[in-house]
Design a protein that fits this description.
The protein is mainly alpha-helical. The chain has helices spanning 5-8, 53-68, 73-84, 93-102, 106-116, 122-125, 134-143, 146-154, 156-159; strands at 23-27, 35-39, 45-47.
Length: 188
């Protein structure tokens, strides 16, 4: 039985054998001439925050290349980061924790030393800061307590990596028992 031609053509190639690009540049006249990146797959548009066509095309070209070379993108990004700051690609979370403790004193120092010893931080302790994924933070938050959440957020400025509040689960404190056991009476 013959296989239909349509099932033999890869999805990412057009009729001429050229690779289809997922993203393309769009300019909207009603948006002060700003360029947007249109995703052909989902139909969504995101602003490129530029009015320069060459810059917009370069940004979209890199987005398309990112899809084609997904396996090497992380290594390329690390190469760029290492030229800006060589320690940026080597700094682990334990370095961040040690750096924070050096600036503290008195009761604050005791609180930080206690917080850093928390076993919830063990999964990220030896992990490079810039390679830490959201799932790693979520694992720490699930394993820890409300205090773990508070101290993890305070690592941000030292690590040059901020934990977005929208990514963190909302922790709710359990209801506290009331001080009175019964409601006061309304009359004598």
């Amino acid at each position: 039985m013959a296989v239909p031609i349509s099932s033999r053509i890869p999805i990412d190639l057009d009729w001429y054998g050229m690779r289809k690009e997922r993203y393309r540049v769009v300019r909207l006249g009603n948006r002060n001439g700003r360029f947007y990146c249109k995703d052909k797959l989902t139909g969504s548009r995101t602003s490129l925050k530029t009015t320069d066509r060459q810059e917009a095309e370069l940004l979209v070209q890199h987005k398309n290349q990112a899809i084609q070379n997904a396996h090497i993108n992380r290594r390329i990004g690390m190469a760029y980061l290492s030229t800006a700051d060589p320690m940026l690609t080597k700094r682990v979370w334990q370095d961040v924790m040690d750096d924070i403790v050096q600036d503290k004193q008195g009761p604050t120092l005791h609180r930080w030393k206690t917080a850093i010893k928390d076993s919830a931080f063990d999964p990220i302790r030896k992990q490079v800061v810039v390679t830490t994924a959201t799932d790693d933070f979520m694992g720490v938050l699930r394993k820890g307590t409300i205090s773990t959440n508070v101290f993890l957020r305070r690592f941000g400025p030292r690590s040059k990596l901020f934990l977005a509040s929208s990514l963190c689960p909302q922790f709710r404190r359990p209801p506290r028992p009331s001080l009175t056991t019964h409601a006061p009476s309304s009359g004598p």
